[in-house]
Amino acid sequence: MAAPATDAPRKLPSMSDQQQQNLAEVLPSEDPLDATDFDPVAYLNVLFPNERSLPSLEPRIADAAAQVTKLDLEISKAVHMQAEAGARATKDIASAREAMAELCTRVASIKTKASESENLVREICADIKDLDRAKRNLQRTITALKRLHMLHAASAQLKDAVSQKMYGEAANLLDAIGHLETYFAPFGNVPRVSALSQDVETVRARLKQEVFGAFEKASILSENSTIDGFDAYGGLRDCCLVVDALGPAARERQVSAFVARQLQPYRKLFPKGSEDSSLENVDRRFAWIRRVLKKYRETYAVKLPAKWRVEKRLVLAFAARSREMLLDVLSSGENEGVAPVLTALQKALVFEKEAQQSVEDDEAALRREPPSEESEINEDHLSDAQLKRWQEDKRAKEEEDGLARTKILGALSSVFDPFMDGYIALEKQNLEDVLQRTVSEDAVDRDGALPVLASSVHVFAYIKTSVRRCTALTTGQTFFKLHRAFGECLKSYATRLGSMLDDVDAPTQQKSSSRGARVLLDAMKRHQTEQNESDGEDLAINDAEAACYCLNTAEYCAETAGQLAEIVRGKIDDQYRERVDLTQVEDAFHDVVARAVTKVVGALETAIAPALRKAKSAKWGVLDTIDEESVYVGDVVKAIKRVAPAVRALLSPLYFRNFCDKFASAFFAKYYDLIRTQKRINEMGTHQLLLDLHSLKPALLALPTMGDESSLPAPAAYNKFILSESSKVETLLKLVGTPTDALVERFKIMWPDGSEKDLARVCAVKGMKRAEIAFTLETFGADAATARTAAEEQVRSQSPPPAAASSNDLSERLRLGVSSLSTFGRS
């Protein structure tokens, strides 16, 4: 019989749950005896479930005993192996400890030897540094002694050369002494060096005085005969070498004195107030300086170094003196008129260009020369005399560098800039004359992509010539003022274009007298067409064409004005470049463009106005029949098809698209207002108006492509706008045709954002009485007082008194309603 099962399996008491889990992961086994939750009773019940299984008990016992014996042997063997391994580990650990002790001893020995070696190397390096320092000091001492000897010898030789007037050798010695002085600058407190420096300064001062005297004598000789045989002072070339050796300050002083000597007679020859000093005789000044320059080239140019830039200095000095003298003449006001000033300016420019071209070759050669090397000097090491001379040389070198960058062009001619107002006034008057003459002709130039008024082409052609004429004279203050004069004239032209637009749709008696021949001809056509309203479309086309010409002209002028500003910026002097601005001119023409687009739209509105008046005067409240479309629809479509292609042929795609957008917006506003202001529209009337709207919609959708079938389809945004606006009109008409009892419900569905005022308007167009409107508004949700007030306003608005007609409507009827009055009389 099977043993009874226990309530819970027994666990091995010697191992925790975590240990048993780890053991199962390391030694996985499927034997039930290895299970952590092994239950002996359950296991025996599995092996011996009943009495018939008892015969196999003995074999099972024998098998278990064999396994126990095997396990005991394996455990005993493992215990012996572990004991042997422990003995070997103890022996290995002892050996490792002995090896580590020996290693520590060797490391300590190495550290000791390394420290000893480092101290030895440090001592050796210190000795080497001491020896190197001693070597350098010895070399410097030897070098200083040698150079001191050289300075002493050079100083003595310089004294001999100066005493014997050997300026060539003196120049070379000065160069050598200059380098030696730079070397001995830190030793200025050494008595011997200081004494030698003072001796050299004394010789340098004496040499400077003698060389300057030699130049003075050479100048005197050149005034009387020639200096080709001038050798009394060692020759002019050697003197130039000495001046260069004395430094930039001495060179600057000598060249300035030479230039002043050459230009000394200038003020005596052209005294203030004399006839020779006037602007009419300004060419005498330039003739005199040309003779001076010619004499310089023949006498001095081959002897004076090119790097002195003597010829350029002569020209700039002459320009500076001439500026002062001419400024006195110009400020005195003795010369009236523009011609003398322009003549003098032109002659000054001719001289400047000649002089610039003359010195350009020398300047190019000097730019190709490598820059001279300058040794660095510590100011703290210089004596007072040396520091003063060094500072003077530094300033003189900066002046020479500035002279190299100075341009001759404009040095004299710029003095005329503040006195060119007369020239600017003359150019402005000429431009205004061109404007007056060409605007009065008012022809159309069709040579470009779009037709423009020929006056605009003539105006900018004159401006281009004026710019070329002015830049040939000056690119400074005068050019800046001239560009402002251009701006004023162009803004005046924009005003004239605006006046033309004002005349486009004005009555004949109100037309401006400044209009040109073509516009006056259109006015005559207008007068004739006023006698017959059937010619209103021709009148609209004339108005549209005139507005398109003004639009294209204004756009052309705005674009060209921007280009003109860029041209002026590219040519004017740097100090005025950022101040060049013609944006106000561009804005003025853009304003004309915006007004012209409105006028073009107004021309088409004028063309469809008779048709809309027919629609407005129709009796929609008593209509009893429905046609495919009303008569006015055909008139509207016909007017659009006649005017739109004419406008498209004259405008750019951008502005034609703008025209289409504005006309569509204006048309739907008028059409919606036409329906809203009807006294009453019955159900048949709403159906007819819906049919009319569906007939008008294709023409409006085709407006952007009308007249050019090969063009791209109408823009999606335009189509969306047409459909959206037509949907608003359809909603209004459908609500007007809705039965009264269902009106509120349908209004909420079809016009969800509609207000009480919108509903009252719909009720009024349906012809509902005041009480009915008030009741409907109350049903919609308005309070009684608000409903009565809204009903009263709508009934009053639907029946305006005769005196409420505006003056604009009256003038419109007087201008365009002659034919309608005649038709009314016949009826």
Task: Set out the fold topology.
Blueprint: H1 17-26, H2 40-47, H3 57-163, H4 167-183, H5 191-224, H6 236-246, H7 248-262, H8 266-269, H9 282-299, H10 310-332, H11 339-368, H12 384-405, H13 421-441, E1 444-445, E2 452-453, H14 454-471, H15 477-504, H16 517-529, H17 536-571, H18 574-577, H19 583-617, H20 631-650, H21 653-676, H22 683-701, H23 716-736, H24 743-750, H25 756-765, H26 770-780, H27 784-798, H28 807-816, H29 818-826
Helix pairs in contact: 3-4, 3-5, 4-5, 4-6, 5-6, 5-7, 6-7, 7-10, 7-12, 9-10, 10-11, 13-14, 13-15, 14-15, 14-17, 15-17, 15-19, 16-17, 17-19, 17-20, 19-20, 19-21, 20-22, 21-23, 22-23, 25-26, 25-27, 26-27
Description:
- With about 850 residues, the chain is mainly α.
- Helix content is about 75%, strand content about 0%.
- The protein has 29 helices and 2 strands.
- The chain has a two-stranded antiparallel ribbon with strand order 1-2.
- β1 (about 445) and β2 form a beta hairpin.
- It starts with 16 loop residues before the first helix and ends with a helix.
- Mean pLDDT is about 80; it is low at about 1-10, about 230-235, about 510-535 and about 800-825.
